[in-house]
Design brief:
Radius of gyration: 14 Å
Shape: globular
Strand content: over 45%
Structural class: mainly beta
Largest sheet: 7 strands, mixed
Order of helices and strands: EEEEEEEEEEE
Length: 120
């Protein structure tokens, strides 16, 4: 059973930076895709950034040029570096991992989330 634990959230002023961490309980290379999602009060959950175990990344348009996702395989951790933060970035950020078996069956894992608050 894969466990994902997020950390690094907090309160920051607009224009500031935070680095979020998603730590996996096992070899993170076994997780095909890790994504950061966020959910703000009254809003639908939305994908922020994705990284595969081959290093391919994808970003939502609203964070391109501001956020960077990366993997530290030695630490079994995926990071989300968030720069130039805006009040609109305020949300609970969640880590999602997907493992695809050799038969094509997908297994989805979620962390508990870490809260980010950006003040103006």
């Amino acid at each position: 059973q894969v466990q994902l634990v997020e950390s690094g959230g907090g309160l920051v002023q607009a224009g500031g930076s935070l680095r979020l961490s998603c730590a996996a309980s096992e070899n993170i290379f076994r997780i095909n895709t890790i994504s950061w999602y966020r959910q703000a009060p009254g809003k639908q959950r939305e994908m922020v950034a994705t990284i595969t175990n081959s290093g391919t990344t994808h970003y939502a348009d609203f964070v391109k040029g501001r956020f960077t996702i990366s993997t530290d395989y030695a630490r079994n951790t995926v990071y989300l570096q968030m720069d130039s933060l805006k009040p609109e970035d305020t949300a609970v950020y969640l880590c999602n991992g997907v493992i695809v078996s050799t038969s094509g069956r997908s297994f989805n894992y979620w962390g508990q989330g870490t809260r980010v608050t950006v003040s103006s």
